[in-house]
Write a structure and sequence with these properties.
- The chain is built from one helix and ten strands.
- Helix content is about 10%, strand content about 45%.
- The chain is mostly beta strands.
- It is globular, with a radius of gyration of 16 Å.
- A four-stranded antiparallel β-sheet has the order 1-2-3-4, with helices on one face. Strands 5-6-7-8 form a four-stranded antiparallel β-sheet, with no helix packed on it. A two-stranded antiparallel ribbon has the order 9-10.
Amino acid sequence: MKKQLLFFALICSCFLGNAQGIKFKKSYGNSGFDFGRGVLQLQDSSYLITGSSSSNSQNSADAFIMHVDSLGELINTWFYGGSETEWGEKIVIGADSSIAIAGYSNSSGNGGFDFYFLKTDINKSLVVEKTYGGTGWDFAYDLIPLADSGYIMVGETSSFDASGTDA
């Protein structure tokens, strides 16, 4: 991928190497624009990464889940989205062992960008894909799983108040 994802990988490796030395430095991608935004370490020391990529799509850009091993070797990548742009910002494991991403999309919804939520099963097959928002721009940046298998997303909206952007 481009410089942005390389920078993300370097940041990850520095975070992972805190007081232990750098574990790996990797660059991933092809000819498009590729951005890493969220990373999650699994129990087996491998990582799930989310972001947005135009390298593997005829669409503008898709959200993705990238799985790399503990040394940064690519295991697989899955892409999700519609005809326009999707961004994955945060990736979590749910109470039911599903994988969920929060971000934003302008492929569907009520206008502009809307909160984007997707949930996959353990094999990364899409289970739920939804957008939430009004006619303005709405961006989800964080996500936490709840014990009842629900989720809470947080972000910003310009859809519901004429005075500007709100949380």
